[in-house]
User: What shape does this take?
Amino acid sequence: MKRYAVILAAGKGSRMKSQDENISKISFPILGVPLVRYVIESLLPLNFEHLIAVIGHGGKTSEAIVKDYCEVVWQREQKGAGHAVMMTAPILKDLKGETLITCGDTPLMTDETMRGLIETHEANHNDLTIMTMVLDNPYGYGRIVKDDQGNVLRICEQKDTTDLEKDIKEVNAGVYVFDNEELFESLGHLTTNNAAGEYYLTDVIGLFVKKGLKVGTHVVSDIQETLGVNDRSQLAEAAHILKRRINRKHMLNGVSIEDPENTYIAPNVTIGPDTIIKPGTHIYGETTIGIGNVLGPDTYLENVSVGNHNIIAYSHLVDTVVHNRTTLGPFLRTRGHVEIMDEAHIGNFNELKATKFGTKAKCAHLSYLGDAEIGEAVNVGCGTITANYDGINKHHTSIGENSFIGCGTTLVAPVTIEKDSFIAAGSTITENLEKGDFAIARARQVTKKNYARKILDKAAKK
Ligand code: UD1
Ligand code: CA
Assistant: This one.
């Protein structure tokens, strides 16, 4: 059986109450990842012949998010989910097989649940299988209307429900598997004769029943999975559940998370066992973390590769590679293209950008290193600044191994300090040093004997 899938993601998302026309609902991030990506990730393992995303409102934003994974189809005017599926006709209409349709706004659905739906559909030889759930409070969802024998008759939307139907607790999760040819045949008969004036996809169900086609349901017990993100409160709820799910996975893999409620880890992050994560830590993007690290408290990592046995506290690292056994922070900030080699120590209030920081090198406090290469075992004194920017261009600073940079040194780039050099504290270095050189570049001190008293007395008389 050939399988196809359609993600409906063109809707206005009016309940998100966004003022920005370019924002689509499916682009709202959860743990730094647009929510539709969770839907895509649940479908990719199922290997569909076609995986199509229908986009429309805020479509340019949506397109950029989905185009690497899905074929993109535009629904220029949002006339309902049924109409959105009609837009896929040029690709799907005449194909034999089955089509799974899901919403772009249900990020909690897992691939196992999707697979379960397909299995029910195929095992029962259905023409249509609807994923349903039983809710204590079914408000807002389409109700599954059945006859006395329990056969599905139709789906009734919230806006169109009568008092009787309001009591129905089995609802539509918004995921279906259709026989593809019958689907497109029925779409041709949809009308906008309902409270919303839209082409409801859910009306196709009634049409299938009228035609005598076999319609079944697949009830999911974990109702969390079917949560739809229609407003920002549901967005926060989905984010909370995903956060817990991800943290639990890492803990079961041997990662200690001291306070899982206050730890935020993006879905694609990998973490090795015996790493300890302290509260207030955020790990986003394509970050990989090895074994035996201590991260946090209050640390932010985005697109960072961390090796093994590092200690990183109260720091903010972006686009950075950290090798092994380093100690970083408290309060280190890296702004991208930074590589920190084995056993380096970078202490409090340092900022690094486009810098390679050598093995066993030290920078204990209060420095800025930009566009620089710091060699092995270099000691960068407190308050060292690479003056890398002349107002127009950025320039490079290179410091060779075993060099000692005294406190308060300004290195005016471009400048090269060869290995084993020594720079006296307070120097402003504008010229290169060769191997083993010593440089002192500051005005000589003037000391006037007992002059302090005179100045103070003068001041007192005023
Ligand atoms: C929908 C179902 C409802 C179900 C619920 C489950 C319909 C009519 N109703 O309601 O039975 O219980 O999901 O979460 O389907 N869309 C488009 N183009 C449009 C309109 C909508 O692509 O013109 C997309 C939306 O982006 C969304 C999906 O269709 O992904 C469903 O639309 P939404 O407005 O969220 O429907 P619900 O009210 O949640
Ligand atoms: Ca929805």
Observations:
- Residues 17 and 231 are 8 Å apart (CA to CA).
